[in-house]
Amino acid sequence: MPRPPKELNPGSSPLALFGSTLRHYREQAKLSQDQLGARINYAGSTIGDVERGETRCERVLAERADEPLQTKGMLPHLWDHLVKPAFYPAWFDWPRHEAKAAVLKSFQPIVIDGLLQTRAYANELLFGDEAAVEARMQRQTVLARQEPEPPTLFYVLPELVLHNQIGSREVMREQLEHLIASASQQIHIQVVPQGAMHPGNTGAFVIATRNDGAEIAHIDTAVHGLTMGGTEELRKLTQSFDAIRSQALPVGMSLDLIRRTVKEKWT
């Protein structure tokens, strides 16, 4: 038997109010989460995340759901007045999706991916905010857990990141040595050499794939991070990741390049 839906508390946050309203209209339309998702090109699991107030959806979801749910413009209106101005940390919902992932594909054009940062490197990036640093270190446990099986990480970074000094030379040397030591059958690290042409200049993003095949992505913008699950958006991000990765060095050559950078610049 299907599990009963989780009880919602619409008053707990603007995202919870938006989510409970979406559930109300969906149930009135007698559609399951998967059925609604199929009609608007989103995974049913994404609809569930939005309804529970666990993720901040993009406006296009509200726009697409408006017609099949016959909300007469209510969902886009609520998105504009509840979701868009809602205060939240850029990363607030992403660790939940990260923890559910079987595969993570990450492109970070400026700094080392948070899952592979040393404490000292993270401390420099986060301006000594101990709580934020500890939260980042806690996120990294997803790669070392025993149950469930940890996700496989495919991490692509431009060579520029190896030269982008964060903190002291010692911090950089420790960070790059940690990157080398982290490489394994589970963690695949590839470097795009300087001068290679690729479509990765628009910013950082991560694509998470669950065991059931559902996908969701997180992108960084100039203002905040955004979690998205639209089929078309995911297709474009996957194409971008594959195009960037096609220009990267193989794993072995990438690790050799990192070793040379440690020796020639940070030692």
Structure report:
The protein has 267 residues and is α/β, with parallel strands linked by helices. The protein folds into 2 domains: 10-83, Orthogonal Bundle (434 Repressor (Amino-terminal Domain)), CATH 1.10.260; 94-266, Endonuclease, Chain A, CATH 3.30.870. It is 47% helix and 13% strand. The protein contains 12 helices and 6 strands. It has helices at 14-28, 33-40, 44-51, 59-69, 74-83, 94-100, 119-125, 130-139, 160-163, 169-182, 231-246, 251-266; strands at 101-107, 152-158, 187-192, 205-210, 215-220, 225-228. Strands 3-2-1-4-5-6 form a 6-stranded mixed sheet, with helices on both faces. A hairpin with a 4-residue loop joins strand 5 and strand 6. It is elongated. This is XRE family transcriptional regulator. GO terms for molecular function: DNA binding. InterPro entries: Cro/C1-type_HTH (IPR001387), DUF5753 (IPR043917), Lambda_DNA-bd_dom_sf (IPR010982). Residues 22-56 form the HTH cro/C1-type domain. It comes from Actinomadura craniellae.
